[in-house]
Amino acid sequence: MQEDFHYYATYCAAILAGYTHEESLTICFSAQFVDLCTKTFLTVVDGPKEAATTQLNLELMDMKLDKRGLQEITSVWSSFHFLPYDLNAKRKKRSRAYMQKYRLICNTNGELLKETVNRAYSEPLEAVGIAMHILADTWAHRYFAGTPSLVINNTNYYFYEILDKDGKEERRPITFKHKASMSDDIENAVYLNCIYQYSEKSIMNLGHGRAGHLPDYSFIKYVYLPAWMDYEEMIKDNPSDYYHAFSQMVYALRTIHRQEHEFECDRYAFDVVDEYKNEIMRILKTRRLSASEDWRAFGMKLSGKEVPEFDLTDAKQEYKNASDKENTTLGRFFHAAIEQKRLVTRKIYAKPVKKKKE
Predict the structure, then answer these.
(1) Domain segments of the chain: what residues?
(2) Which of 41, 66, 227, 294 has the CB geometry, 3.0–4.6 Å to 283, for a possible disulfide?
(3) pTM beyond 0.85
């Protein structure tokens, strides 16, 4: 997902969940900051390097793809962007090495999501924002894994956008290019993606790179052939998925705000959100590279307050000038990010318990 959903839509969800304008801004700031907190940024502000929640392309290209380097990449992308659905996943006639990657495939409503959201109950709002980023990404990034893997994340030439033409579905072929200087061309269905690399460990095979930014656009419904499904047809309906993501965020935020009960998977605040369904679906289905302005207008309509553009300036200055850095917006974010990364990586790399012989 992009800033339009992680920042502006998250603000809307927080308002609908009962948070104040100021609280909602803190939550959506942290939700968006997950996509910007790199080691490079942490070096600039002199923050803890282990708090990195994403990686720049240049950082990735400089990394060694040995065991340690791959674990660092996986700890970042699986913890915050491609939360594994089932770390105990089984598949017949697959090697142990294959299963170590297969178990990292992201999907919605997994046990780790439940732990992630419930951990935010007793934490500051910055931790709540991080949890909302992760929750939202389980919908956008489902079926991809946050680790470099050709056998899991690769796709092939078979990509079609599914369009609604007079009530009937029509498939239009999607073309991928690799020119860094060009932008996605929605009108002509030409999109950027990562270059095919045959190496299993290539950075080009991380996450949804082979599918370009298609998972991050709310308007698109498409069909493709994922490698982990042995290149069988998979349909991804982003407008529906994003609506579910928004409704689940409102539900999750309400449970955290009210603290009446713990977050439970596969529950949604449709009772609250459906009142605005037509407006939300219009935003989600409008074909453009960013829906920020529409989400922002919707947020101001809900709260009656001005929603500022995302800006790191004040938070950076506060952190740099503070004598007690832990008690700042960035300080609380860094602490929450480190704890979230520990939660996920401990689960991923936990040694299986050996059964005792009778």
Answers:
(1) 3-148+238-348, 153-237
(2) 294
(3) yes
